[in-house]
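W.,

You were right to be curious about this one. When I first looked at the sequence I had no strong expectations either way, so I just let the prediction run and decided to look at it fresh. Below is the sequence, 248 residues in total, followed by the output.
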Amino acid sequence: MTIILYDLVSLAPGKAWSPNTRKARFCLNFKGIPYQTEWVEWPGIKGVYEKHNIEATASFPDGSPRYTFPVIHDTSTGSTISDSFAIAEYLEKTFPNTPPLFPHNTQGLQAPFSDAYIERIRPMIMLIIPDICHNIMTPTSLAVYQPYMERLFNVKMSEFDIKSPASVEKWTKYKVGLDEIAKWYGKTNGPFLMGDTISWADFVVVSPMLMFKTVWGEDSEQWKEVNVCNGGIWGVLIKELDKYNIIV
């Protein structure tokens, strides 16, 4: 039995960089489920959906279908699932005798937490897109990725400059968002959102941060600032989860 995880080809070490596919990878590693990665160039994402006859689970602002990873295909059941949260729910249901992603049936609470977190880090996602284009995209993927992101955020890459006033404002908003998330973490006694218990929410939090580390580099000013934000709790969290951050 093997699960196929579809991930994106890149020039990054180990290829993995996407925060959404990393969430699914964390889930598989944490639960100890055998899987293999099939690497796909950005133009090939839609083909994966067509191959497995599944519908897009996301859309562009105009309502047209938006094909995204992660996608997993379970060769033992024939099931193909897209969207990182849906994948987590599928793994939880299909492999009940593995470590839980939603301890004490908390998926109803963790889903809105995930949405709230993504909303708070959105400014940073927009900031990093040009560096994704320049630093890790293959020419084949870049030809599709750049117009895809411009369409998604309704902005031209040429308008981004990390030192511009607009970008400084986005950076500030991101750190304010981290302050809010840190308060939620501060209500527990452990490094994880649920205290000493790992859950899906922790993977949601660290996956974008690891993208920043991958794209900007460990020695970059941006990554160093993220790593020490809020008393360094994010660096501790990443270190605690490092054994599940495996690229297969």
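Here's what jumped out at me. The chain has two domains: 3-94, 107-244. And, maybe more interesting for your project: The chain has a mean pLDDT of 92.

Coffee later to discuss?

I.
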